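Summary for the steering committee. One of the milestones for this cycle was to obtain a three-dimensional model of the protein with 2-acetamido-2-deoxy-beta-D-glucopyranose bound, which we needed before selecting residues for the alanine scan. The sequence and ligand used are listed below.
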Amino acid sequence: MFRLLMLILLSHAWSVRPHQPPQNIFILAGQSNMAGRGGVTNNTKTNTQVWDGIVPPQCQPNPSILRLSAKLKWVRAHEPLHADIDVNKTNGVGPGMPFSNAVLTKDPNFGVIGLVPCAIGGTNISEWKKGSFLYDQTVGRTQAALQGGGVIRALLWYQGESDTVTLEDAELYKQRSNKFFVDLRYDLQVPMLPIIRVALASGQGPYIDIVREAQLQNDLLNVRTVDARGLPLEPDVLHLTTPAQVRLGEMMADAFLQSMPSTIKTGPSYSDAPTKFSNFVSYSLMISLLLCSLCLILNFR
Ligand SMILES: *[C@@H]1O[C@H](CO)[C@@H](O)[C@H](O)[C@H]1NC(C)=O
Ligand SMILES: *[C@@H]1O[C@H](CO)[C@@H](O)[C@H](O)[C@H]1NC(C)=O
Ligand SMILES: *[C@@H]1O[C@H](CO)[C@@H](O)[C@H](O)[C@H]1NC(C)=O
């Protein structure tokens, strides 16, 4: 009887994998303010962009935050998150790390987070349309991230600065971004994928308000907008500073956690299912064992 119990306990211990891939996948996409330029300034002597390397506590690495590298490997996440993705630019602090740390602080049982950085500086919404290089990269990297059996929890999207230059692009922003969201949800096979997007704090052209208007009124379900207007900007008046990115990440975490109930309703993931099943089997066995011993004890009397 005791041996059987030990056997069950041991087999249960073996079924727990030592290095589990992350179960909570987040796509980070958009342009420079998603890639992260916090702390990046001009070095006037060398005339190059340099990152100051300052990483506030809210952006520090955490064993529960991984990132998918350009080579599609899970690695410990640290700033700058897009260093091997937005390779032609100098990357700094973005919203991804403070977002993840805030989610884990507010929901300690959330589980390991896997970030999938896909943002590239200077890109307009047309460069993200279905069939483009950036679109295919995003779908491909996300599918690679799901190989470990995780669930896509949300797309974090911060883009549109490049669409403020001409009136035509600004007016078409709403239609183009909605099409992008619908296509991406379809191709990732998550029709109600939560999208947390940012309303612009800045832009490269004069039509910022037209793009912001499109971002603030959501026609699609499960899309939430957090407003970055008023957050501090670097001297280039285009990029969020490091403290601004910390604040933005926390705002996005709040928006995501508020959207959680509808996320949970999508039911157990494929990866949860076997674990829950094996738990169920071992609990059932334990209860049968207890009942058996009870019967034996009663019989002996
Ligand atoms: C970086 O620049 C090279 C050369 O211009 C270009 O081929 C490549 O697509 C760029 N990559 C990104 C991620 O912008
Ligand atoms: C978007 O950016 C690409 C690359 O810079 C450019 O070729 C294209 O004309 C832009 N598209 C629109 C609609 O602005
Ligand atoms: C850095 O210098 C470039 C030109 O060398 C300029 O276009 C850019 O606005 C400058 N950025 C900042 C943050 O001053």
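Key point for the committee: The domain at 22-270 is CATH 3.40.50.1110 (Rossmann fold).
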